[in-house]
Structure formats: C-alpha cells, structure tokens
Amino acid sequence: MSFQLPNLPYAYDALEPHIDARTMEIHHTKHHNGYTNNLNAAISGTDLEGKSIEAILSGLDMNNMAVRNNGGGYYNHCLFWEVMGPSGGGTPSGALADAISAAYGSFDAFKEAFSKAAATRFGSGWAWLCVHKGGKVEICSTANQDNPLMPGIGCGGTPILGIDVWEHAYYLNYQNRRPDYIGAFYNVINWDKVSELFEANK
C-alpha cells in the first residue's frame, strides 16, 4: 500500500494574509507531493512497504537517505497542514496549556523559546513541540526533513506542533524575513488539533 498525498483540510487561500495561497499551493502540490512520490519509490519492494509512516521513521536506518529525507518530508508536512487552520491563533487551553506552563513558565515564554528554535535553525529544517509519555512537553529543532520520531534526533517525543522553516515555506511572501513568518505562524495554529495530539500521545 503506497502513501497518498493528503488533501488540505482548508482552501489554499484560507490562511491569508499570514500564509499566502500561492505558497500553500506550491508547497502542497509540488513539495509535499514530491516527497510522497519519492517515499513510495524508496520503499517499493522493501520490507518497509506496508508499514505505517510512524513505524518506518521510528525504526529507520539513518543511513538510508532516500527514506530519511522523503519519509521525513511526507510525515512532517502531513502534521504541518493539520496543526494550522483559518480559525487558528489564540492560546492553548486545558491540559496542554498546563503542560506548556509547567515546562516554560508561561505561554509567552513558550512562544519565545519556540520562535528562537525556529529562527536559529541554520539552513533548512523544522522547530517542534513534542510530548513525552507522562505529558511533559519539550521544544527542539531538526535539520532538513528530520523529525523527533527518528532515532537519536531532537526531542525524542512525539511531535504535536511543527513549523517548517525551509525557505519554500515562506519565501514568496516574506523573502529572507524568517522571523516575520514565524510571528505570523501563531495566527494560524489550530490549538484544538494540537491539544488532540497532546492527549493522544501523552
């Protein structure tokens, strides 16, 4: 069974003015689609075929660069689309808010730490909020299409929020102003979805 490019749960222009429609369309139909097709090609005829993406990444041979890059790219973008939405923004609530406060002292301090992880990731990569078993949350960042599900990478928990800081995620609108894009991202975070992922993986 091959992996499929997921449909976005909203229109390409739904996140404007924070993330523009053209960027969303190119990001989804070109970049994510490319990772999906290349992942399918990389696992075809191997013992990875038929496994879930989570199983593939958690047991990954990190020297298998085709699966590492394209499997990571597939998984990372699936999560990225889910944790954004047109009614996003605001702040987390409930148990997730409590976990963030326990780890970082306040939501503002969390934003500062998450923004720093995203802004200081050299070159291309991602910043993540992960949850560990027991409910502790942690921020980390990874290079390229690596993610914390992979052995020995980043937080080691389950990602519940991620921001793509590859230039293709923001360059049309923000050019080299990555901090402006990071700031805009908070206006589209779907905290209900992040909370759902927190509850499912804590």
Radius of gyration: 16 Å
Q: Total number of β-strand segments?
A: 3
Compute the number of helices.
8
Structural class: mainly alpha
The helicity comes to 40-55%
- Shape by Cα distribution: globular
Strand order of the largest sheet: 2-1-3
Query: Which regions contain 5 or more consecutive residues with pLDDT less than 50?
Result: none
User: What percentage of the residues does DSSP assign to strands (E)?
Assistant: 5-15%
Sheet with most strands: 3 strands, antiparallel
In round numbers, the mean pLDDT is: 96
**Terminal Cα separation, in Å?**
29 Å
Q: Explain this structure to me?
A:
Helix 1 (21-43) packs antiparallel against helix 3. This protein has helices at residues 21-43, 53-58, 65-82, 94-104, 107-119, 171-174, 178-185, 191-201, and strands at 125-131, 137-143, 158-164. With 202 residues, the chain is mainly alpha-helical. The two termini are 29 Å apart. Strand 1 (125-131) and strand 2 form a beta hairpin. A three-stranded antiparallel beta sheet has the order 2-1-3. It has eight helices and three strands; from the N terminus they run H-H-H-H-H-E-E-E-H-H-H. The model has no long low-confidence stretch (mean pLDDT 96). The radius of gyration is 16 Å and the shape is globular.
